[in-house]
Amino acid sequence: xxxxxxxxxxxxxxxxxLIGFATxxxxxxxxxxxxxxxxxAPIYRAEGxxxxxxxVKVFSQTGVEISEQGKQLLTQGTLLADxxxxxxxxxxxxxxxxxxxxxxxxxxxxxxxxxxVIYRDKNKEISAAIVDMLMKKxxxxxxxxxxxxxxxxxxxxxxxxxxxxxxxxxxxxKLEQYDRLQGPALFAAKDGTLVGGITGSQQQQRSLEIQxxxxxAQYSSLIERLGLTPDQAYxxxxxxxxxxxxxxxxxxxxxxxxxxxxxxxxxxxxxTMIELRKQQQTYETLLQARGAEVLGGNGFTSPLPSQIRQDxxxxxxxxxxxxxxVALQTQRESLxxxxxxxxxxxxxxxxxxxxLPNKQLERGRLAQQVAFKQEFYNKLQVALADSKIAEAExxxxxxxxxxxxxxxxxxxxxxxxIVTLAIGGVIGIVVGAGVILLLSTLDNTLYTPEDxxxxxxxNGVPLLGDLPTIGLKSYRxxxxxxxxxxxxxxxxxxxxxxxxxxxxxxxxxxxxVTSTAANEGKTIVAYNLAIASAxxxxxxxxxxxxxxxxxxxxxxxxxxxxxxxxxxxxFYGSKTECIHLAQDFENLYILPSLGPLRKxxxxxxxxxxxxxxxxxxxxxxxxxxxxxxxSRCNDALLLQPFTDGIVLVTRPGYTQGSILSxxxxxxxxxxxxxxxxxxxxxxxxxxxxxxxxxGYSAVDTPVDQTPADQHKVTSGVxxxx
Length: 721
Hints:
The protein has helices at 4-15, 17-35, 61-72, 76-79, 82-92, 96-102, 124-191, 193-226, 230-241, 243-262, 271-295, 305-311, 316-393, 417-442, 449-458, 490-501, 522-535, 568-573, 575-578, 600-604, 607-619, 635-639, 657-670, 707-715; strands at residues 43-52, 103-106, 114-121, 398-403, 407-409, 463-468, 510-515, 540-544, 580-581, 588-591, 622-626, 646-650, 673-681. It is of the alpha/beta class.
């Protein structure tokens, strides 16, 4: 038996043979062109050497550093820069591409001092001249690199110098401004003035507190002796000292005395009494006005006459005490204000003393910034002067050490054309075969049953049968539907049908047949499965559910009415008109398709189609529904709810592996997939008669299995993994 890999490769060879032949002839042709090439002319190799140099005498440190850096920058890219190549090409009148192609620069290894410049050319003199010019231009390139570095350094320093000077001036101004504001406080702290001020303030507070205690003692004593507050003492003293108030008090007292004497003799309405009351009121009004003048009141806050008379009764001794109390009140308030002012002054001095370390730190920070800015500015000045001196001393980091005599490179001898062609032919065969193998690997089509079975096995899909290619003697017409009851191919479909019947519960009565894509033979499988079921004596119905294609029921001489496609719902609603008996097989009934129809999905979802399939489940022993491929439309998924499951048809040479895996995964999620069959297998031997009606032949049982194992195999046919 041919291995699957060989079979697949032979199929790929048959499909891609033109590409394989084209690859073979292409490589053979190239080898032929190589074989007829003439013997190449000798090539001369000229080699020159450049040596690293060190400045003899320099006056700047920057010059030494630039020289060392220039050596590190001398790479093959910088030595063979575009400007060097173009100048040499123009001077020697050769192509720049030829110079880049034929020039080789070998940089020195660790510890070496020489750079090798190699040029190859067919002309001995030209190779030496180009090497000589290349080395001269490389020396100039090195000097240009060093000069460019110095110019960049000078430009950077000159660009940063004004900014550094401005930052230095700004730092100096900040320090100067801080000294103007905080300098006196810092100076006072240094010479002890601030501490002396705090001590003097504390001594002054103690003196004021002593004076205030003495005043408080006198103050309290006078208040206790007089029985008056300082405000009352001031009022009484002022009123008692005024002569007008004293005169008015005397007149009021005289009037009151007269009224008291006449009260027993005269009635209150007597003119004399009325006159005396008027005089009393007049005196009281004048007394109130005078009291307001003395005390500084106005018409709204003037004291009452009775209060004025009462407060103006101090004798000279009490009046002197009242004046002393008022003076002590003034002195007491003055001492309190002085003490508060002294305390505030001490607090301010203490705050200044507490802030003194921060101020000193701030000044130190500002002074440090000035020092840093000054140091940076000085370094820039020194670096600028050093770089300008180095610019005048700049030299190349390379020097020409010499050039060797050009030597001829050994050329290869001419090869045998026959051997070259033979090698090219072998390589062409190998490469052509490899291209075909690569194309077969990239091809996603499953070409052999051995390619299909692993996918089914990995996805847990039962293989319900291997179906053969139907011979020409077994069918009539263009469609490979078996019409001869004696055809040997029916035995494979009988085995397929038996495997469906042997599935675990629930039993399969209505099965839907579909495929992943077109041309996989799902209609052939559906018809032949129905024929196998009818031959087994079961009342079988074949439903052509592909309403998007023409009917193939004419192979059984079944033709629907001409006007049926005009009213498809009425056709499927009439159970007597739509179902016909096949001519070649008993027990086989066919429901032909009216296709192609424009609204196929709507008809499949109609209640007429639903009732028709439900009625068929009760009237027939086995129902096979043919549906369109899944890649074409979703009609199979619309019909599936009316069936017991789906049988997926695959066909080597047509089924795509990725599409098959995707379809199986989607169907397995809904648990509607009963299994799959492999259709159109060529050179498949007919099975021997089945034993015990299990659908397995004797040749299918492995020889190393026990009877118990055989029973497990036969009883599990068609079950899911």
